[in-house]
Design brief:
The chain is an all-alpha fold. It is built from 5 helices and no strands. The mean pLDDT is 92.
């Protein structure tokens, strides 16, 4: 997710705003400090114009 975000020149704050989730959530997901909710993954994938599978490395 981090690579995809950075490829699109987005900060964590920008991604969080566009995906309508908190920056802390983005930070925790990128840092693998917790399991992401599927609803968050869908929002992030949509914002980054990718699939949930791609975010998960599938």
């Amino acid at each position: 997710m981090r690579d995809r975000r950075m490829h699109q020149n987005l900060t964590q704050e920008q991604l969080a705003h566009r995906a309508e989730i908190s920056r802390d959530t983005i930070q925790r997901i990128e840092g693998a400090r917790n399991d992401a909710r599927i609803s968050h993954l869908w929002r992030i994938a949509d914002t980054l114009d990718t699939t949930v599978g791609a975010l998960l490395g599938e």
